[in-house]
């Protein structure tokens, strides 16, 4: 492939850019603790990822060993004494543009950071839920009874206990 960008590579580059912008936005929300805003991006993120998958498939070589099946073979591509054959085409693997390599690295870096931020958000939510559940379990045994007096129920066994005095 020449250094000139073809249509499928240009589309792939746009898709990488769109997905990266969305992941950057999500990462900013996650880092700021704005989980509801990050969750709101999920549908858009899924759609952009699907577009990226399709662009990757469209840009993927279809021939043997990474060579496009319909790509023309020239003397420069062929090994000596074997010009113009399909075997010659397979000897020259397709090379991507530096822009695509840079976009893929950017995507990889953002995805790695996104994974860490999502793990941190999940861990934080789990810690908060644990605190709420522990408090609920501790509070289950105390409260006001049917008589209006403050009581302590030493037989409360869980956060959701049925009490006959209520």
From TrEMBL:
Region described as Disordered: 59-96
Biased composition (Low complexity): 76-91
GN (gene name): flgN
Lineage: Bacteria, Pseudomonadati, Pseudomonadota, Alphaproteobacteria, Acetobacterales
Protein name (database record): Flagellar export chaperone FlgN
Keywords: Cell projection, Cilium, Flagellum
Protein source organism: Acetobacter garciniae
GO biological process: bacterial-type flagellum assembly
């Amino acid at each position: 492939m020449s250094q000139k960008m073809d249509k499928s590579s240009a589309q792939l580059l746009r898709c990488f850019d769109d997905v990266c912008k969305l992941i950057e936005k999500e990462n900013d929300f996650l880092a700021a603790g704005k989980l509801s805003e990050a969750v709101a991006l999920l549908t858009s993120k899924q759609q952009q990822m699907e577009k990226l998958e399709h662009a990757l498939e469209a840009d993927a070589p279809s021939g043997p060993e990474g060579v496009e099946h319909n790509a023309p073979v020239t003397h420069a591509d062929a090994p000596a004494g074997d010009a113009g054959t399909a075997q010659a085409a397979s000897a020259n693997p397709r090379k991507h543009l530096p822009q695509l390599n840079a976009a893929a690295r950017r995507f990889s870096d953002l995805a790695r950071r996104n994974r860490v931020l999502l793990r941190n958000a999940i861990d934080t939510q789990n810690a908060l839920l644990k605190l709420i559940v522990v408090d609920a379990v501790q509070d289950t045994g105390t409260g006001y009874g049917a008589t209006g007096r403050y009581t302590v129920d030493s037989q409360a066994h869980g956060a959701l206990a049925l009490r006959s005095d209520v």
